[in-house]
Amino acid sequence: MAPSKKLNWHTTALHAVQGANLAGKTSLVTGGNSGLGVETVKALATAGSRVVLTSRSVEAGNKVAEQLRAEGVKGQIKVMQLDLADLASVKKFSKAYLAEERGPDLLILNAGVMACPQSYTKDGFEMQIGTNHFGHFALTQQLLPSMKALRRPARIVVVSSRAHEMGSIDIQDLHYRHRRYTAWGAYGQSKLANILFAKQLAKNLEGTNVKAFSLHPGVINTPLTRHVYGTGFAGWAVQNLVSIVGYPWLKSPAQGAATSITAAVSPDLESHSGVYLHDSQIKVPTKAAQDMDMAAELWKETERELAEAEKKLTS
Ligand SMILES: NC(=O)c1ccc[n+]([C@@H]2O[C@H](COP(=O)([O-])OP(=O)(O)OC[C@H]3O[C@@H](n4cnc5c(N)ncnc54)[C@H](OP(=O)(O)O)[C@@H]3O)[C@@H](O)[C@H]2O)c1
After folding, report:
1. Pocket around ligand 1: residues whose beta carbon is below 6 Å from it?
2. What domains appear along the chain, each with residue ranges and CATH number?
3. Which UniProt keywords apply (predicted)?
4. Percent of the chain beyond pLDDT 70?
């Protein structure tokens, strides 16, 4: 059965979580300090989950946690530092998380960077695929045994984008060392990688307690656009102008987080592991995003490059 038709473009995260009792569960949201992440944390905590909010900046994360408590959100919110563009940080985070927590029951891979100038992570990965795909892949690898050990339904939700339609995977040159870099091409590649990762993960996890999903959240005016509109006063002005002119087409962050919440809690999705969602409904992504040969190749290459980077870290 697909998710209720009552869930659609207008649905907010708080609406999508209605009816879910997450008491006794632990959720982890990457990039929980901004945009869709804040609304995702809010909805999960409102439904009773203990939420681990990860943020590059603990200060920014704490500010959001305090703000949500002030709004009356009752669930426990714990802030932990995590930089996905640094595998040493991912490793340090996982170690600290696993020392104190179980699972998580719900792992929401939400953090992302969009259309930045050509740059590289600490481990030498192109910044967009490095953060959006490699960082989340490494985190998942490290937390998965603990998720399986829960022996109860658990889910991994990968926040992708319709921008996957603009990208293609070049397995020989994932990091733009040989082809010409374009900010949108690299974003598209990273978001296509997100969908292929979720599909391969779902396949690998068949018969286990853990399911995986990916999604497009809609178009929402968040700080994600910083590399597009610029920063400072000019960026602020463009962002506000876009909010006004784009009002009929833009979702609010609360609406933007609804599809992540549907993927995380909808009981109707339990037998649909691997699907891609849009507006809280199952959608068919592009052909490239359904290519399971490429999903397997990308998985192998990601594992290989992460193992190589790990060797450098420990040498
Ligand atoms: N907004 C949209 O229209 C839209 C459309 C399609 C898909 N998406 C996807 O939705 C997700 C959330 O985006 P958003 O719109 O909520 O953007 P946002 O407000 O900019 O939030 C992105 C989050 O990711 C974090 N992040 C960036 N680089 C990171 C790193 N190296 N390590 C750890 N965290 C990092 C950011 O941290 P800082 O605050 O420290 O920068 C922030 O918390 C992204 O995956 C994005 O690709 C958004």
Report:
1. 30-31, 33-37, 56-57, 60, 82-85, 110-114, 131, 159, 161, 216-217, 219-220, 222-224
2. 13-222+253-309 (3.40.50.720)
3. Oxidoreductase
4. 97
